[in-house]
């Protein structure tokens, strides 16, 4: 009998019908003998809707009050999921907020870091044969204030809960479900022939996530790496699993691994290279010189910055593939203007001032993965 922490995102819970179908699958998995802990996000676009209401009232809403507001979304999800499960099997599920499971964070509202999970109530529920339903994305600070963990925080909750429970249940594992089965060589929504990656090590997955791939959030991967939690991704609608992320993988790193497109960046440019901000938390890339300085940010532009896009190729040994990389650069040059480029031993990233077309993207994917 294994203990499995499963996380389900907002698209999995967008309607009562989807919640009901998911509840049936959870009960069926429980009946096979596994102990289950379920971590859920807010339904559909609930968080965005709540943030929009706050922004309609203030251009700079108080972060504490926004955390109080957006934490409502996950509380709605845990209640509805518990109701749906208990309608199938009376008394099986019990819902918990982040504070109720003792998920303690620092005092940084909107992007808090987890300090510890006490988890006594979780262990009691599991020992009594229950299925705990946990609100992802939220906790309580050392000052006893409601906090949230930043975008994708439910993934981080699932990883941290798995690590905490593994002290009592050594076989605890983490499964993160979404609308794609796993990590691909490129986003299946824009790639004509994506290749599923069966296994990745933490460091490679962290690189892919930090570049903008949407299957796993980089904060969750960083937690998994630090805490030694193996993550398995899966498809919500079928329960099929796809990619395992662990300490070591059998993947040949010298092969190309993934092509990642990111359309949520911005950049600023100055002639004297003096545009380095005091807050570096959102800086993705910085190029300083006396003649021209450029900084790329991990966010959409403000009034002083411009839209920016990036296409990044991940894989070791890139420096030995000059011909293919030049083909990639030339295809992009024919489609839009390149504003910067960055190369390391594991990635080659090109920044542009307009989005790369789907046709060009697929031609580049075919060069490396076709």
Q: What's this, in brief?
A:
With 370 residues, the chain is of the alpha/beta class. The chain contains nine helices and 18 strands. The chain starts with a strand and ends with a helix.
Low-pLDDT segments: none
Name given to the CATH architecture of the largest domain: 3-Layer(aba) Sandwich
State the helix count: 9
The separation of the N and C termini measures 42 Å
**Overall number of structural domains:** 2
Topology:
Blueprint: E1 3-8, H1 16-31, E2 35-40, H2 46-57, H3 63-88, E3 93-96, E4 103-105, E5 114-117, H4 120-127, E6 131-135, E7 138-141, E8 146-148, H5 153-165, E9 173-178, E10 199-201, H6 202-210, H7 218-227, E11 231-235, E12 241-246, E13 258-270, E14 283-287, E15 293-297, E16 306-314, H8 322-333, E17 338-343, E18 347-352, H9 358-369
Parallel strand pairs: 1-2, 1-9, 2-6, 3-6, 4-7, 9-11, 10-12
Antiparallel strand pairs: 4-5, 7-8, 11-12, 13-15, 13-16, 14-15, 16-18, 17-18
Helix pairs in contact: 1-3, 2-3, 5-7, 6-7, 8-9
Walkthrough of the structure:
This protein is of the alpha/beta class. The protein has two domains: 176 residues, Acetylglutamate kinase-like (Carbamate kinase); 112 residues, VC0802-like. Helices cover 32% and strands 27% of the residues. It is built from nine helices and 18 strands. The strands form three sheets. Strands 3-6-2-1-9-11-12-10 form an eight-stranded mixed β-sheet, with helices on both faces. Strands 14-15-13-16-18-17 form a six-stranded antiparallel β-sheet. Helix 2 packs antiparallel against helix 3. The longest helix has 26 residues. It starts with a strand and ends with a helix. 41% of the residues are buried.
